[in-house]
Amino acid sequence: MNNEEKLIKRIKNKSNKTAANQLISIYYKEIYIYVYRQTSDRELALDLTQEIFISVLKSLDNYRRDKGSFRTWLYKIASNKIVDYYRSKYYRYSTVVEKLDDYELKSSSNIELDLELKEDMKEIIEIINSFEANIQQIVRLKIFGQLTFSEISKALELPESTVKTRYYSSINKIKKILKERENEQR
């Protein structure tokens, strides 16, 4: 039994807060980065990361090691939270005002390139948000979570071939939409 499994067992059996804090600290930065890559908002990423870990601790009894690794299960919960956020009324009706000051520019000579890349990422996330929830999960776990097809397959309880087909189909759809938008702008 590895350290992670021991912590999970202590949390399940005794509601051990120290074990819970240790388990969270193992994955906190990784999950925060996963969320931040999709939101580009520090405060929102912190809030969602906190919600993710609250959900993880509340539903830890549902975790089954035979269904996949804890990390994979954690990413599934994180993916669900992000999909829920983007489907929420708050997201749909709020206006996001970004300040240039908040955006860390790598160098003054690359300002245009940096802004274009950030705009492209926003557009891709917008397209991903328009997909059905099950497709969003696959794309988010692969692109932002950098999980393997095998890990995604286990997390979502789908055949690996289905995961691959849906992923590549989605990527082709994203490329097609981006190309159509680019042609419209000409």
Topology:
Elements: H1 3-14, H2 17-39, H3 42-58, H4 70-87, H5 89-93, H6 111-129, H7 133-143, H8 149-156, H9 160-185
Helix pairs in contact: 1-2, 2-3, 2-4, 3-4, 4-7, 4-8, 6-9, 7-9, 8-9
Overview of the structural elements:
This protein is mainly alpha-helical and 186 residues long. 75% of the residues lie in helices and 0% in strands. It has 9 helices and no strands. Helix 1 packs across helix 2 and helix 2 packs across helix 3. The protein is globular. 25% of the residues are buried. About 9% of the residues have low confidence.
Give a nutshell description of this structure.
75% of the residues lie in helices and 0% in strands.
Q: How many β-strands, per DSSP?
A: 0
Q: Would you tell me the overall average pLDDT?
A: 82
Q: So what's the overall shape?
A: globular
Low-confidence stretches at least 5 residues in length (pLDDT < 50)?
92-108
Radius of gyration: 18 Å
Total of DSSP H or I helical runs spanning 4+ residues: 9
Helices and strands, in order, run as HHHHHHHHH
Bin the strand percentage: under 5%
Question: How is the main sheet built?
Answer: none
Quote the distance from N terminus to C terminus.
59 Å
Secondary-structure-based class equals mainly alpha
Task: Classify the helix fraction into a percent range.
Answer: over 70%
